[in-house]
Write a structure and sequence with these properties.
Elements lengths: L3 H18 L3 E3 L16 H12 L1 E10 H11 L11 H7 L2 E11 L3 E3 L3 H14 L6 H21 L6 H31 L8 H27 L4 H26 L2 H12 L2
Helix pairs in contact: 1-5, 1-9, 2-7, 5-6, 6-7, 7-8, 8-9
Length: about 280
């Protein structure tokens, strides 16, 4: 593989893969212009998961009496209940009350930035695809989805500057889902565009194993994303998400290792496309 532009394009695409799927956030010491407005219309858990996952947050807890939970547990453990005439109604009601810990208020924990910013990852993919656009029409589609992902990413992280409370939580949740699928489609199109550069029977194994690795990347990315969201208040799930991201990084490296086994044919496709 002697062509410099081709090498640069592949390097940018590889970096784009890593920057988009991996997040390493650090605090900046700066604060959002407004404090987060807690609301009773949404559960504390839902608010905390969304705000911490996307923007960084802390929370306080409170203890509440959950009679419904207590009744369900009592029904499970005591299917046949006998009335004790010696106990008062107040004592019986008290025995059926369970105190549980829930999230009370959510607070911003300062503005966080991603050391591996997704926006930069999309820019890398756009530039890489522009350098390889003549090799496959799919690179053009990848550019469009990457542009869409870039815009959605910028919108998602700018929400706290003009939204708050209920509207912010719902918007962050919905846009976050759309953003996740934008990531998936962008990386999928980039992968299929690269595989289009190694056609023929000779590269059949590379295409097969690259696709298998991609399926593993997709499954790991989805699991890691959801465990990271739920892990905002569960240390075990947060650790599981970090393990998932480590596996994801390994699969990305494996994908590129398998793909570059066919670098001779990638170079050949590039020369044929740009010599016309």
């Amino acid at each position: 593989m002697k062509n410099t532009k081709l090498k640069v394009a592949l390097l940018l695409l590889a970096l784009g893969f890593i920057f988009i799927v991996l997040d390493v956030e650090v605090a900046t010491g700066l604060d959002y212009p407004n404090k987060y407005q807690n609301t009773d219309k949404l559960s504390g858990e839902y608010q905390y998961y969304n705000i911490r996952t996307n923007y960084g947050a802390t929370c306080t807890y409170k203890m509440i009496d959950d009679k419904k939970y207590a009744s369900e547990k009592e029904f499970e453990s005591k299917p046949i209940e006998t009335h004790n005439p010696k106990s008062s109604d107040g004592e019986q009601a008290k025995s059926k009350t369970v105190t549980i810990k829930v999230i009370d208020d959510v607070y911003y924990n300062g503005i966080h930035i991603d050391v591996l910013p997704d926006i930069l990852g999309f820019i890398f993919i756009i530039i890489g695809c522009l350098l390889l656009k003549k090799c496959s029409r799919r690179f053009g589609l990848t550019i469009l989805t990457a542009l869409g992902g870039l815009i959605i990413c910028a919108l998602l992280y700018s929400l706290p500057f003009f939204m708050n409370g209920v509207m912010l939580c719902h918007a962050a949740f919905i846009i976050g889902f759309v953003y996740m699928f934008a990531n998936i489609f962008t990386l999928y199109l980039a992968m299929t565009s690269l595989l289009a550069m190694i056609p023929g029977v000779v590269c059949r194994d590379e295409r097969k194993w690259s696709k298998i690795t991609w399926v593993g990347m997709l499954a790991t990315f989805i699991v890691a994303t959801f465990t990271h969201w739920l892990g905002a208040d569960f240390g075990m799930l947060y650790t599981l998400s970090n393990i998932g991201y480590a596996i994801l990084l390994f699969l990305i490296i494996l994908f590129w290792y398998i793909l570059l086994r066919a670098r001779h044919y990638i170079n050949k496709s590039y020369i044929e496309a740009y010599s016309k």
